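Allow me, if you will, to draw on your knowledge of protein folds for a short while. Thank you for your consideration; the sequence and its tokens are set out here:
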Amino acid sequence: MVSSSLSVKVPHGLTVTEEQFRQFVAANPDLRMERTAQGKLIVMSPTGSEGGNRNAELTTDFGIWNRQTQLGKVFDSSTGFRLPNGATRSLDVSWVKQERWNALTPEQRRGFAPLCPDFVLELLSETDDIDETRAKMQEYLDNGCRLGWLIDPKTKTVEIYRPNQAVEAIAQFPNTLSGESVLPGFELSLQTIFADAE
């Protein structure tokens, strides 16, 4: 079998319906895409190797905690969620409480689950725009997220998002981040994962 590469260029501001988005995703399974609440199609670049490694380490830490507690479901960056506002978003790491996951039908679980995760984590990459990522974090809160972390390895800063509270900005990486009441007993060691951050 001969494989070929395909270059995809999306016109700036292209909007698609929810059904068109589903069809586009099904026809292009190797692409990572999002759809905004206004229907704008976003095709995202693959992350660099260093960012991919950090994201894998983060997902592993959440997975280990979740296997021990069995409180919900952990999802990696390839997972899409259809938010209540109509956007379909893919987060670097996310977690859904077990009761909310159980309330979904098997069909909803197989597709883009129609909910906003309880916890979200965005790891800023070299190609991410900080203002756009902050806007996405606010969008998650507006759609039901209970705790969010925006981590920037380059500046070694963390922003913590909680409903009905001002964003808490931490200027230098703390040793650990607490999952608070949303992820009971979970602590993330930033010093271990980002020890080589420049």
Remarks:
- The CA atoms of residues 101 and 161 lie 22 Å apart.
